[in-house]
Amino acid sequence: MEVLVILVPLALALGFAGLLGFLWSLKSGQYDDLDGAAWRAIADDEPVNGQGGSK
């Protein structure tokens, strides 16, 4: 039971740190363009030559 004296404040502190990180990411615009990153990942920007794509 003595370990709860350490674990409960530690869990609360980690939860608060996660909340602060999430709020910071919202404020800095990390979630502004969710579709753009998905389309950039599958976009075929570089032309592929006849040798399997290696240059």
Provide a brief overview of the structure:
InterPro entries: Cyt_oxidase_maturation_cbb3. The protein has helices spanning 4-27, 34-42.
Task: Explain what you see.
The chain has two helices and no strands. With 55 residues, the chain is mainly alpha-helical. It has one domain. The longest helix is centred in the first third of the chain and has 24 residues. It starts with a helix and ends in a 13-residue tail after the last helix. The mean pLDDT is 85.
The main sheet comes to: none
- Indicate the mean pLDDT: 85
Fraction of residues in helix: 55-70%
- Helix tally equals 2
Radius of gyration computed on alpha carbons: 22 Å
Order of helices and strands: HH
Tell the overall outline.
elongated
Domain count, please report it. Answer: 1
Give the termini separation.
Answer: 64 Å
Structural class: mainly alpha
Protein name: Cbb3-type cytochrome oxidase assembly protein CcoS
Keywords: Membrane, Transmembrane, Transmembrane helix
Transmembrane segments: 6-26
Pfam family, one: FixS
